[in-house]
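We read letters as residues; the fold follows as tokens. A sample entry reads:
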Amino acid sequence: MQADIMPLSDTPSWLVPLIFAGLALFFFLFRKIIAGGLLHLILTPVRRRYPPDYPGMRQEMINPLGLFLAAAFLAAACHLAYFIPAPWSGFLTRLADSLLTAVAFWFLYRLSALVGFLVRKGKGHPAEGASSSAVSLLVSMIRVLVLFVGALVILSYWVSNVAGLITGLGIGGLAVSLAAQDTISNFIGGIAISLEQPFQLGDWISTPDASGTVESIGIRSSRLRASSGAQVSVPNKTLAASVITNESRRERRRIEIEVTLPWELAGSSYDLFREKLETWLKNREEILEPVIIAIRNLKPEGQSLYISCYTGAAYAAMLETRDGINRALAAILDELGMSLEIAQPVRLEREDAILKNDAKHE
């Protein structure tokens, strides 16, 4: 005997929505288990490559993903609930769509942290200073964009003329932007500094307006600690438009010394002096090539000797090396029995006057 089968048209209108509502309840009750399993599969590359960071990223996204599945089935149930009267049906549908959209954009909001993490790791080294600031700024911009778009989408369910509202917001935004040009310029300057990374936190930089150690890179301004100990706040737009010298990224420092040698130190004496000085400079480990020793100018009072060499990047070490060169100069001159003292001509005006008077009387 053939079994009786209920035609699909005879299925109660409330049965399918009830099934979807039951699935929504099921996914809601077991959301963490189901979402955890899905993330275990989705984040497999991250889990294998960055095992210590996987639990934190999984925890960031497990709640919105679990609620998204439940909200999706709930929205489907509301759309299929044809037995509900029209006014209430439309309200429940918009409410369910708003909930689904909010959860979906919440998931995208949390996903931006994963984007920032991958950008940071993609550099091949731990982000520090400005690199970290650039990644944080990128994540913040993505999150603001997600919140803005999500709010507009949810608003479109309840407001018919969203285009007019956006136009009004655009006019209002233009008025605000005109009133806050400096703030916006500084914000854009901060973005440029964070992305280009001309310096990092802790670097010593110098600009035509200020110099010091970078302590923070903010949205409006960056703070430097000057050598005097004072804190200097420089607007980001000024800093971004300035010529920046990053002393902390210097590979080496140049030492230039110029002394005037008396004319007595010439010929073979100068050759011996130069040989001893060049030998001393090239035997010092802290002094780097090239080493230049040359007579730059000839003056009435003597020969202008120019010495140029390089040393390490540290400023204090450079001063110590410079001091050592000056001491070596004095020691070599003393060894040769020479001095940098230049004889000064003295005119005896009184004797000249007596000689002139004697000549007149003759």
